[in-house]
Write a structure and sequence with these properties.
mainly beta; UPF0703_membrane_permease; DUF1980 domain-containing protein; DUF1980_C
């Protein structure tokens, strides 16, 4: 989940988001929340999706 003004983003827009990672209670569960500090529109990356191919990247 992210907290911040994202109302001006068009659907299917690629963005780079910077912020502070926090936690919040939601329906009796603790979930991660990104408090947005900045949003930058970017071009679609060459590899737009993450594929699980069993390789651990450190």
């Amino acid at each position: 989940m992210a907290k911040g003004d994202v109302t001006k983003l068009e659907e299917d827009t690629w963005v780079r988001v910077k912020g502070r990672l926090n936690k919040q209670e939601y329906h009796s569960m603790t979930i991660p929340v990104l408090d947005i500090q900045s949003i930058e529109k970017i071009n679609q990356p060459k590899q737009p999706y993450v594929y699980d191919i069993g390789i651990k990247i450190d």
